[in-house]
Write a structure and sequence with these properties.
- The complex is a heterodimer of chains A (about 120) and B (about 110).
- Chain A is an all-beta fold and about 120 residues long.
- In chain A, about 0% of the residues lie in helices and about 50% in strands.
- By secondary structure, chain B is mostly beta strands.
- Chain B has no helices and nine strands.
- The model of chain B has no long low-confidence stretch (mean pLDDT about 95).
- Classes of the chains: A mainly beta (about 120), B mainly beta (about 110).
- Chains A and B meet through β5 and β10 of A and β7 and β8 of B.
C-alpha cells in the first residue's frame, strides 16, 4: 500500500536550518510528484510547491521562494524539504503529499512534521 | 495568489445535510474543473474525499458530494454522522502547475 512517512518533530533556534524527509513506499516513486504543504497553528493548509520526482525539478509557490528548497534521493524514494534562516513564523506542521497520477489531487499524505522555532 | 474563501465554521445535527462553499476566482475555481476536498481530524493528516469537483476516491461514502457553479465549488455532506466532525479544506488548480487552498471550515456535528 502507498505510504509516505515523514521525519519527526524538530525544535530549532531562529536563524538555524532544518531538513525534513518524506519517504515513499508502495508505488514507483518517480511516477508521481511530491507536493509540500504548510499548516501553521490554527491555520489552513498552504501549498508550498512540488518537485518532479523524475527530473528533480522543483516549483515553489510565490510565498515560498528563497529559503525553502525541495530535493530528492531517488535511491531511497525520499523527498526533502530544507528551510534555512528559520523564523518564529516558520513554526508549523509540514506535510508532504503525492500528486495523483490520474487527477489533480493529492491522494496520499505523510503524517506531518512539526517544526518549532523558538529561542 | 490569494487563498480560496471558505466559511470558518458550519454545523448540523446527525442525519441532516450541510454544504460548505469554496469561492475562488475566474483564474482558479471558475476556470478549471480541478477542485479537490480534504477532511482533516485534529492532529491527523488531511484525507482526500473529492477530486475533479465531483469524483470520489474509492472508499469515500457517497454521502459526500461535490458541485461547482461559476467561481464557487461546494461540498455537501448528507446524513451527517458524528465522525464527520472535522476540518474540511478545498483546493484548486490555479494554472502554471500551481495550486491554492482554502482557509478551511470546521464542521461541528451537534
Amino acid at each position: 500500500q502507498v505510504q509516505l512517512v515523514q521525519s519527526g518533530s524538530e525544535l530549532k533556534k531562529p536563524g538555524a536550518s532544518v531538513k525534513i524527509s518524506c519517504k515513499a513506499s508502495g508505488y514507483t516513486f518517480t511516477k508521481s510528484a511530491i507536493n509540500w504543504m504548510r499548516q501553521a497553528p490554527g491555520q489552513g493548509l498552504e501549498w508550498m510547491g512540488w518537485i518532479n520526482t523524475n527530473t528533480g525539478s522543483p516549483m515553489y509557490a510565490q510565498d515560498f521562494t528563497g529559503r525553502f528548497v525541495f530535493s530528492l534521493d531517488t535511491s531511497v524514494s525520499t523527498s526533502y524539504l530544507q528551510i534555512s534562516s528559520l523564523k518564529a513564523e516558520d513554526s508549523a506542521v509540514y506535510f508532504c503529499a503525492r500528486g495523483s497520477e490520474t487527477s489533480s489531487a493529492f491522494d496520499y499524505w505523510g503524517q506531518g512534521a512539526l517544526v518549532t522555532v523558538s529561542s | 495568489q490569494s487563498a480560496l474563501t471558505q466559511p470558518r465554521s458550519v454545523s448540523g445535527s446527525p442525519g441532516q445535510s450541510v454544504t460548505i462553499s469554496c469561492t475562488g476566482t475566474s483564474n482558479d475555481v471558475g476556470f478549471y474543473n480541478f477542485v479537490s476536498w480534504y477532511q482533516q481530524h485534529p492532529g491527523k493528516a488531511p484525507k482526500l474525499i473529492l477530486y475533479d469537483v465531483v469524483e470520489r476516491p474509492s472508499g469515500v461514502p457517497d454521502r459526500f458530494s461535490g458541485s461547482k457553479s461559476g467561481n464557487t465549488a461546494s461540498l455537501t455532506i448528507s446524513t451527517l454522522q458524528a465522525e464527520d466532525e472535522a476540518e474540511y479544506s478545498c483546493c484548486s488548480y490555479a494554472g502554471s502547475y500551481t495550486f491554492v487552498f482554502g482557509g478551511g471550515t470546521r464542521l461541528t456535528v451537534l
